[in-house]
Design a protein that fits this description.
The structure holds two protein chains of two kinds. By secondary structure, chain A is an alpha+beta fold. Chain A is built from two helices and four strands, in the order E-H-E-H-E-E. Chain B is an alpha/beta fold. The chains are: A alpha+beta, B alpha/beta.
């Protein structure tokens, strides 16, 4: 695992669709371009949703991984 | 002699469409939902799609009309309307975002009660939480002026933070913006 500087974390574990995306969008709004957001989620739909969200918003999905039922996404703000 | 009616030809409009807004701060995609129903099972997809759209940078508008108006009546308003028929309507179909019935299997409130239990168990956000998320992210809820009049609803009966009441032409104008998807729910 590469070490990435993380500027902000959104813990969306336990939340169902669309809340992980909603909380992520709200966090990204407060960040500046180039900053990295870490999102933790347990909603299995989040894997496809974060890929789609990254495509529609242009914020880069740096990493999408899974560990023991927790999904982890690293997002770089556009 | 045969009479042949002159075919009516509709020329496509040569009026230029408004140019798409520039990339970046301004939304280049849009979602318009006509929210016609006041049932839990339809309000949910409306609120989920619109909050997800706003979170994904879509300019999002929800036109609330007919039964879809009643969930957007202010908290604590029980009977709304001016004449007995309008009052009866709100008596039979309780207004407010916390009082949504199911379109099927309502069973005098048993269905919604069970749905509420299930959604809590599976951490699904409530209609109120989703509505708050929508409003925080700038989803515009546009009440239908015509149905408001017909139901005897006044501006002060409706919850805060809604858009200006409008009509069909406003919705059509939003729906035909480039890059806009429209749904009737």
């Amino acid at each position: 695992m590469t070490l990435t500087r993380i500027d902000q974390v959104v813990d969306a574990r336990g939340l169902a669709c669309p809340m992980p995306i909603v909380k992520t969008a709200q966090a990204v709004k407060t960040m500046t371009s180039g900053q990295v957001l870490e999102v933790l989620a347990t909603d299995a739909g989040a894997v496809k949703d974060f890929a789609a969200w990254s495509k529609s918003t242009g914020n880069q999905l740096l990493e999408s991984s899974q560990d023991a039922g927790t999904y982890r996404f690293l997002i770089v703000k556009k | 002699m045969t009479l042949v009616a002159e075919p009516v030809v509709f020329e496509p409009s040569t009026e230029p469409r408004p140019a798409p807004e520039p990339e970046g701060e301004v939304a280049t995609k849009g979602l318009v939902i006509v929210n016609w129903s006041g049932s839990y099972d339809r309000i949910m997809p409306t609120l989920i799609m619109s909050s997800a759209a706003a979170a994904s940078g879509y300019r999002t508008s929800v036109f609330i009309t007919f039964w879809g108006l009643l969930p957007f009546v202010k908290d604590g308003k029980r009977i709304v309307g001016e004449n007995w028929m309008q009052k009866m309507l709100s008596f039979m179909d309780r207004p407010g975002i916390d009082h949504l019935a199911l379109s099927k299997m309502n069973f005098m409130g048993m269905g919604p009660w069970m749905m509420g239990k299930l959604s809590k168990q599976y951490n699904v956000a409530s209609p109120r939480e989703l509505l708050e998320a929508c409003q925080a992210m700038g989803v515009e809820f546009i009440p239908c002026q015509m149905t408001m009049d017909m139901f005897g609803l006044k501006a002060e009966d409706m919850m805060d933070g809604l858009g200006e009441p409008a009509g069909a032409a406003t919705v059509l104008e939003l729906m035909t913006q480039p890059g806009t998807a429209s749904l009737f729910i």
